[in-house]
TrEMBL record:
It comes from the Bacteria. Residues 70-127 are annotated as: Disordered. This is Sec-independent protein translocase protein TatB. Residues 94-103, 110-127 have a biased composition (Low complexity). Keywords: Cell inner membrane, Cell membrane, Membrane, Protein transport, Translocation, Transmembrane, Transmembrane helix, Transport. It is a single-pass membrane protein. It is found in: Cell inner membrane; Membrane. PANTHER family: SEC-INDEPENDENT PROTEIN TRANSLOCASE PROTEIN TATA, CHLOROPLASTIC.
Length: 127
């Protein structure tokens, strides 16, 4: 962050020793160290909060993508099932002409002849 070399730190320490004095310098240095520690912790907390928010946003985007793909997959399965169901229903139902021909009753004149033919083998001639 700051480009401070060792020689510059020595100059700062000598100026602080002259200005503050040898009796109060250790206490001031300790206080400055505590303040710098608090500052570093605060900066690290802010960085971690920003990183958490960014990860949360990425997870929300990922969640919406997964939900969209799940919906599209579900829709494709539904369409496939409905088309398969429709084709099976069409295959099971006979054509309309065949159903209509099977439901037509035989003519009235043919019915007594069929009954007579069925009764004839039951009556055998006596010999």
């Amino acid at each position: 962050m700051f480009d401070i070399g060792f020689s510059e730190l020595i100059v700062i320490a000598v100026v602080a020793l002259i200005v503050i004095g040898p009796e109060r310098l250790p206490k001031v240095a300790r206080t400055a160290g505590h303040l710098l520690g608090r500052l570093q912790r605060y900066v690290n907390d802010v960085k971690s909060d920003i990183n958490r928010e960014m990860q949360l946003e990425e997870l929300k985007k990922l969640q919406t993508q997964v939900q969209d793909s799940a919906r599209s997959f579900e829709n494709s399965i539904q369409q496939g099932l409905s088309s398969t169901e429709q084709s099976l229903n069409n295959a099971i139902q006979p054509p309309a002409e065949t159903v209509a021909a099977a439901e037509v009753p035989p003519p009235a004149a043919a019915a007594p002849a069929a009954e007579a033919a069925a009764a004839a083998p039951a009556e055998a001639p006596k010999a």
